[in-house]
Amino acid sequence: MEIIIAATKTCPHRPSLEKLFQEAWLPYRINYFEDHPEIFEKYQLKHSPLLIVDGKVESVGMPEIDIVNDLKARNRDFSEIRISKRDKNHMIPKNIGTEPGVVEVDVTWGSIQSIKAAQSVQTIGELEVYQHHMKGYSIIDARKPDTSDGVTIPGSKNIPYEELIERMDELDENNPSIFFCNGPQCPQSSTAIKNLLDAGYPADRILYYRGGMHDWITLGLPVQKL
């Protein structure tokens, strides 16, 4: 659902309407008449604000509360409250210029994953990943190569999630393995874990690093080339 508030930059009602939508967890964007004269031409309306939903004018001026409640009822998908997907997106945080420690993060791609990949599987963080690595235990990068941007967590082994069932014999038989992918928006490692469990792999030999490459890089931790 695409919600647009079309308003003048001096509209006194716009801040109240924005606050109303924020409290309702409704996604929206602002199109100012001064920057988008085509709105005048398309709708032939000069009132401010206009509420435009999926290309249709839902309200002229401040909307009635029934309109807002209707939009809330239509907006049942959790992913709908996110910023709209960019036309050109990237999964891995990218360095900005030459300054170390500053990265650009794309928040629009993927689908938000549950904190647990499965009820029987423990979710861990960066400290546990580091300690696991220092013990020499297995860390599995479950991403397909074309989603990796050529970098991974040091010491990890890449087994794409689609190949894990056939390659279970490559996993550590004595100690848990950590599985990760591109982070909270990426379903690859959680899919890998579900596939392993369905194939009878023991849950106590699986650890889920949900933060993945997103959190690893944004916390300034080292990476290595694949």
Description:
There is one protein chain. By secondary structure, the chain is α/β, with parallel strands linked by helices. It has two domains: 3-81, Glutaredoxin, CATH 3.40.30.10; 94-225, Rhodanese-like domain (Oxidized Rhodanese, domain 1), CATH 3.40.250. 23% of the residues lie in helices and 19% in strands. It has helices spanning 14-23, 38-43, 65-74, 126-134, 188-198, 212-218; strands at 3-7, 29-32, 50-53, 56-60, 94-95, 103-104, 122-124, 139-141, 151-152, 157-158, 177-180, 206-209, 224-225. The chain has a five-stranded parallel beta sheet. α5 (188-198) links the parallel β11 and β12 (206-209). The relative contact order is 0.13.
Low-pLDDT parts are: none
* CATH architecture title of the largest domain: 3-Layer(aba) Sandwich
Task: Determine the CATH topology of the largest domain.
Answer: Oxidized Rhodanese, domain 1
Extended strand count: 13
Shape: elongated
Top CATH class of the largest domain: Alpha Beta
In brief, what are we looking at here?
The protein has 226 residues and is of the alpha/beta class.
Keywords for this entry:
226 residues, alpha/beta, Glutaredoxin, Oxidized Rhodanese, domain 1, five-stranded parallel β-sheet, four-stranded mixed β-sheet, 6 helices, 13 strands, 23% helix, elongated, Rhodanese-like domain-containing protein
Helices and strands in order:
Blueprint: E1 3-7, H1 14-23, E2 29-32, H2 38-43, E3 50-53, E4 56-60, H3 65-74, E5 94-95, E6 103-104, E7 122-124, H4 126-134, E8 139-141, E9 151-152, E10 157-158, E11 177-180, H5 188-198, E12 206-209, H6 212-218, E13 224-225
Parallel strand pairs: 1-2, 7-12, 8-10, 8-11, 11-12
Antiparallel strand pairs: 1-3, 3-4, 5-6, 9-13
